[in-house]
Specification:
The chain is of the alpha/beta class. The protein is 25% helix and 27% strand. Bound molecules: FE2/S2 (inorganic) cluster. FE2/S2 (inorganic) cluster (FES) binds next to loops.
């Protein structure tokens, strides 16, 4: 660093009074620098260039390898597609997700998938995502039938807030995972054992059957190599269990207390909604402050009709939505039990979306008229948005005819 840079960037702490005087020199110093500056126009913008690398709007990727994890889960290795303009991958924080954009029957849909590789793997040129096939999964069926080595995939940059923040979080993390909710914890565990994250992880991983456990061998090996940083406890809910050293049933307060110092840790939860609701009731018993419990949004609501306050009398109805999107206005049908976002996608209007969990605000739209149902459990909107009728179509359900204005996808 030369003398001029030192003057610009370095603040040396001397004492309260001296530091105070140092600030009095800021304006004269800035004037001096402006006088000395060149008249040549600035041709590059390094700050914006860096921001584009860290937060790209889109990443063009190619499937480089596919690995079977269980009979219904596969890990896809994604590398940059330089032909389409992605030469390096955006770095991320362990726990974040990619929103994949996939065209199925000419309809573009998006789905968020946690990155299951470690942040340092992104610097080596790849991401892993691990996908479990859902029984009637529209997209997962398509992926199973069509994705092969060489398939091109479009994704967002890394997104989401399910990550460890050393300034906010305690260093002892208790991960509670269910089913494919294990995927962000693989990334967290790897970052911890690689030393890029200064924390310890105790993982309580619930599965219905032994065969459903994803990454069993891999976690076992990591645990054996780093017993001071990682501990994994499997909790199986099936009737017959042969796995040694596991717990049976569900992740109850008793099991949590058996393995964790609950007052001195932070909980990270990722799994199906039903598991989340069960676990949250267990954690309530410990009377923890809200900030000690972080959860990954779990994607779209699959059974809105079972929500206690959902108006059941409209469940069978289909309403009309008049949707303005860019310069296009179209009237589309929408079932009360499907989200407004799904209705827009079905009509091929390509609405913007990323998390599909009501959290990121990327699909934020204006309700001009009509009524929607939004579950209070997942209403992440700002107070001003609630006041001025903005809503998140991914987590809102039509309960009357309505008119809306939707932003266009970038
Ligand atoms: S897609 Fe994130 S809030 Fe709707």
């Amino acid at each position: 660093m030369n003398e001029e840079d030192k003057e610009r960037f370095v603040i040396t702490v001397k004492s309260n009074t001296k530091d105070l005087f140092a600030f009095t020199k800021m304006v004269p110093n800035r004037k001096k620098r402006i006088e000395k500056a060149s008249n040549e126009p600035i041709k590059s913008d390094p700050i914006n260039a860096l921001a584009r690398i860290l937060h790209p709007e889109r990443q063009y990727l190619i499937i480089d390898e596919i690995r079977d994890e269980t009979k219904s889960a596969k890990t896809f290795k994604l590398v940059p597609d330089s032909e389409l303009g992605t030469s390096e991958l955006a770095y991320f924080r362990a726990g974040q997700y990619l929103s994949l954009k996939v065209k199925v029957n000419n309809v573009e849909i998006t789905r968020p998938y946690s990155i299951s590789s470690s942040p340092s793997d992104a610097l080596e040129g790849f991401y892993n995502i691990t996908i479990r096939k859902e029984e009637h999964g529209f997209l997962t069926n398509y992926i199973w039938d069509n994705w092969k080595v060489g398939t091109k995939v479009v994704s967002s940059g890394p997104e989401g807030f399910f990550y460890f923040e050393p300034l906010r979080d305690l260093k002892t993390i208790i991960g509670i995972a269910g089913g494919s909710g294990i995927t962000p914890f693989r990334s967290l565990a790897k970052a911890i054992v690689e030393g890029t994250m200064d924390a310890k992880l105790t993982l309580l991983y619930g599965s219905s059957e032994e065969d459903d456990i994803i990454f069993y061998d891999e976690f076992k090996k990591l645990e054996e190599e780093h017993p001071d940083k990682l501990k994994v406890i499997h909790v199986l809910s099936c009737d017959v269990v042969s796995l040694e050293g596991c717990e049976t049933g569900f992740i109850t307060a008793d099991i949590i207390e058996k393995y964790c110092d609950v007052k001195n840790c932070i909980f990270f939860i990722c799994g199906p909604q039903i598991m989340y609701e069960f676990v949250i009731k267990q954690l309530v018993k410990f009377e923890l402050p809200q900030k000690r419990i972080r959860r990954e949004a779990f994607g779209e609501i699959k059974d809105i009709i079972n929500y206690p306050d959902f108006p059941k009398e409209v469940a069978e109805k289909t309403f009309k939505i008049k949707a303005q999107i860019g310069n296009v206005t179209k009237e589309i049908p929408a079932m009360a039990t499907e989200s407004v976002l799904v209705a827009l996608e079905r009509a091929n209007l390509a609405p913007p979306s990323k998390c599909r969990s009501g959290e990121c605000g990327f699909c934020r739209s204006l309700l001009i008229s009509g009524d929607i149902y939004i579950s209070p459990i997942s209403d992440w909107r700002k107070a001003a948005d609630k006041k001025f009728n903005y809503f998140h179509p991914c987590y809102s359900y039509p309960i009357s005819d309505m008119e809306i204005r939707v932003p266009r996808q970038l």
